[in-house]
C-alpha cells in the first residue's frame, strides 16, 4: 500500500493491539532489534515473554496506531508494563504503595516516520496510564530532548562499567566468598530486598522531597532472567554444559547478593541489583569487600560467556569502591570507568497527568527498573 501523503492524526486509529497486530508490531520491531536472533525467534521470544508472571493478565498492555480502515497497516506501537512502587512525600510518614508503568518498545513503521505519529501514540497511551497509575518511566535511546517534549523528564544517571579486557589467562573463578544463585533462591531474596528497600526509604529524614522507588519484586527480577535465558537457548543452539548460565551470586555469609542479566545483543552483563540486607550493617571495609566479591563474580560470568562489559547503573558509594577494588585486584583484566549516561538507556519519568517533577528523587534507579 502506498503511504498517504501528509499523514495526520485524523488518518490513524489508536487502540489496544489485537493478537494479529501484536505479531505485526513485533515483526516491525524485529527489523531493528532481533539480531543476533532470527526474526522468527524474536517474535517467539516476545510471545513467550507476554506469558511471564510480570506481563500476563493485563500486566503488560500492547498499543498500536494503525491506518484508518486498514488494521493490519500498523503505523506505530509500544508496550506498557505495570509495576508496584513506593512513594514518599518527604513529610516523615511511611511511604505509600503505588504503581507506575514502564514504557518500552516504542517503534514507528519506517514508512510513517517524521510525521509525528509516535508522539500522537504516546499522548494517547498517557491517557490510558494516567487512569490507574502514579507515574510512568522509559529509558530513552533517542536522547533526552524528544521524550522531554512529551512530558518524560530525564534524570541524572551515573554508571560504572567494568570492561573485561582480553586475557591469555584462564577465566577467573568466583572466590570462596561467594556462591552462585539459582532460581529457588529468588522468591525469598526478593522479599527480603523489598523489605530492606522499604525500611531504607522510610528512614530518610523528612525533607519535603518526593521520593519514588520501583519495588524489586520477584516478577520484576525474574522477567529479566527469563528473557536472557530464552535468548541464550536460541542464540546458542547447543550451550556447552561446562558453561552454565548463572543469574547472580550471594556471599558465603548470606548477607549480600547480586542479580544480573545477560544482554547478548549488546555483549554486556547488566547488574540488576546489588543488595546488602544484614541488620548488623558491618564495617565499611566489610561491606566494600562483599560488594567487590560479588562484582568479581559478575566479571567472571561475563568472561565465561565472552561478554565485553559488566554495567552497574547508579551505584552507591560503597559499590563504587567495590568496583575500584575489582579493578585494582585485576589491573590486567578489568578496566573500571565511571561516567554520566547521556546516550543509551537515559532514565526518564513522567507524573500522572503531566505534573511537574520539581524536588523529586528517583531512588534505587538500578538495572531492574528497565523493562
Automatic annotation (TrEMBL):
<dbReference type="InterPro" id="IPR053013">
    <property type="entry name" value="LAT"/>
</dbReference>
<dbReference type="Pfam" id="PF22998">
    <property type="entry name" value="GNAT_LYC1-like"/>
</dbReference>
<dbReference type="InterPro" id="IPR016181">
    <property type="entry name" value="Acyl_CoA_acyltransferase"/>
</dbReference>
<protein>
    <recommendedName>
        <fullName>N-acetyltransferase domain-containing protein</fullName>
    </recommendedName>
</protein>
<feature type="domain" description="N-acetyltransferase">
    <location>
        <begin position="47"/>
        <end position="139"/>
    </location>
</feature>
<dbReference type="InterPro" id="IPR000182">
    <property type="entry name" value="GNAT_dom"/>
</dbReference>
<feature type="domain" description="LYC1 C-terminal">
    <location>
        <begin position="164"/>
        <end position="371"/>
    </location>
</feature>
<dbReference type="GO" id="GO:0016747">
    <property type="term" value="F:acyltransferase activity, transferring groups other than amino-acyl groups"/>
</dbReference>
<dbReference type="Pfam" id="PF00583">
    <property type="entry name" value="Acetyltransf_1"/>
</dbReference>
<dbReference type="InterPro" id="IPR055100">
    <property type="entry name" value="GNAT_LYC1-like"/>
</dbReference>
